[in-house]
Amino acid sequence: MYTTAPANSGVISYTERTPPDMTYDLPTVNRLLHRLGWHDIIERGRANSLYSWNPWLDPTILHQVHCLDDQVRYLIALLHLGQDVPLAHLDTVVAESLESNGLIARDVTGDRWTPVWRLTSFRGIAGVARSGYGHSSANVYLGSDGLRFTDAVLAACPRGRVLDVGCGSGIASAAAAQTAQTVTAIDVVSDAAEATKLTGELNGVTETLSASAVDLEQFLIDSSVDTVIANLPGLPVPEHISYPVAGNGGPDGRVLIRSLWRKFAASLSKMSKRELIMRFESVGDEFAPAALQELQELFGTRCDVLVVTDAQLPLTIRHSMTAKNATALNPELTNDEILQQLHRGTDDAKNTHFYCATLKLRHPGEGTFQHIMTARRLNIDHRYQPAAFTAHSSERVLQDFLIGFRSIPDEFYSLGGLEEIDLLRDRLDDVRQALREGQTPREIGTELVATNRAAHESRVLTVALAVAVAAQTLVDAGDLAGCGSYQIGECSC
Ligand SMILES: C[S@@+](CC[C@H](N)C(=O)[O-])C[C@H]1O[C@@H](n2cnc3c(N)ncnc32)[C@H](O)[C@@H]1O
After folding, report:
1. How many whole angstroms from 279 Cα to the centroid of ligand 1?
2. Which residue has its alpha carbon closest to ligand 1 atom 9?
3. CA 60 – ligand 1 centroid, Å
4. CA count, 13 A, side-chain hemisphere, 316
5. How many of the other CB atoms lie within 10 Å of CB of 421?
6. Which of 21, 219, 312, 461 has its CA 20 to 30 A from that of 113?
7. Is 320 exposed, middle or buried (0-12, 13-18, 19+ CB in 10 A)?
8. Cα-flanking dihedrals φ and ψ of residue 326, to 5°?
9. What is the pLDDT of residues 335-394, one digit of tens each?
10. How far apart are CA 281 and CA 319, in angstroms?
């Protein structure tokens, strides 16, 4: 199920396992979810969390919403949190409808309901992912990038015929189906095509949305397509390292992204009016994603291109997370060996950072090319100095520090997250003092982790990133001088 490509091919291969075939009948489930206020509960839970793009809330949601009756509580535990629930706890009609539509199943003992799909909601649109993604061979992925992508698709209100390439859960396809005439969704994983059909059913858009298992590499963009939307895998993963197909972007991370850009460029004739809306990742230097140059070369003169880059993080942190995810899938390699291969794979002195961005491209255009950087530049190796004055109280700094986590790259939460925020919240005054004395976020992270538990490299990097957020907060508050979001020229790190 996972990817291994022949040496030096640069191509990402994928072997299919289970071709599913399911017909859905979901009116009972849909009516039930609306009656329970499902969308609202998930949305409010997310709004209360610092990790505001997370599709999957943590179990505290069950305590946050006081008015939940037991039936709703069990359904959230089962369908959203992916927990088993005793058979007797679910209403029989509801459970049978969920079971007959393949959303839940009886466990081996026959005593409990166990989730087959997990269900979430974003801006009122339901989306599913396989229960167990990342821990088993489940390949239908829905992560924070999927929600950011769905947000971009909703904002673009695509009309006419839409093609979604690499549809995954289908949540963005369902978003496009709100305004489009038709949405054709494809994914190399047949289970993803299945997820997209189920997502279409749950959102009542089956007449507009169709999904099938097709490999982008065997696919040509039809001349009748008005808008292409895509969020393809973009992580740099060397050949010989196995990695989930939803993340594996090939040796430089852009094999599939580049392939789609070339196909899109090839599909354009002088007469064609076509848009491309994408979420993409790219390595780059300290200032910008390397992919910008490719975009400029392919589309520079004939399209209007807008790229909004909303996340930048040191490449070493991205690699650390990739290695962590890959360890279970590559039992013959240690975490350090995987890390070494990842670093070797992107071994160009210019590739110091990893970027996530949204692209909006229109043909025909006047050749405008705009890159907007909204990401905070978080540097874990910078030495700061005390600034001339302290503008804010400790309480205000703490408040700003916590707000800063709403815009931190999503990778932070996958490596660690809330635990690191708590660690720092308690030590913010010490951290502030250490930064003023010239220690780097990485040095402070190493000390903080060492005093708390065994210093795993990935945990040190996560804490270091959190310290970098604290440092930026203090720079913005006028307490520290250093490399801030808009001080690129002054930064000597
Ligand atoms: C990062 S996930 C995004 C899924 C979904 N679009 C979203 O935003 O949540 C990338 C998706 O691309 C699919 N994919 C990977 N290689 C592909 C290929 N060669 N052709 C079509 N889809 C592919 C994966 O199976 C996965 O579902």
Report:
1. 11
2. 146
3. 30
4. 17
5. 23
6. 21
7. buried
8. -85, -15
9. 889 999 998 888 777 899 999 999 999 999 999 999 999 888 888 889 998 887 666 677
10. 13
Residue with tokens 């949190």: 81
Q: And the tokens for 453?
A: 């538990």
Interacting residues of 54 by C-beta distance below 8 A, sequence separation 6+: 46, 144, 147, 410, 413
Q: What is the pTM of this model?
A: 0.89
Indicate the SS3 state at residue 214. coil
Q: b/e per residue, 228-250, with b = 16+ CB within 10 A?
A: bbbbbbbbbbbbebbbbbbbbbb
Nearest-CA residue for ligand 1 atom 13 is 166
Residues near ligand 1 (Cβ within 6 A): 141-142, 145-146, 149, 165-169, 172, 186-189, 192, 215-217, 231-233, 245-246, 256
Name the residue with the closest Cα to ligand 1, atom 6.
167
> Which of 236, 227, 342, 210 lies closest to 291, judged by CA?
236
Task: Round to whole Å and give the CA distance between 390 and 403.
Answer: 19
pLDDT in tens, 96-120: 889 988 999 999 898 999 999 999 9
429 C-alpha to center of ligand 1: Å? 44
Shortest-distance Cα residue to atom 25 of ligand 1? 246
Tokens of 367: 């050749």
Tell me the CA end-to-end span of the chain in Å, nearest whole number. 42
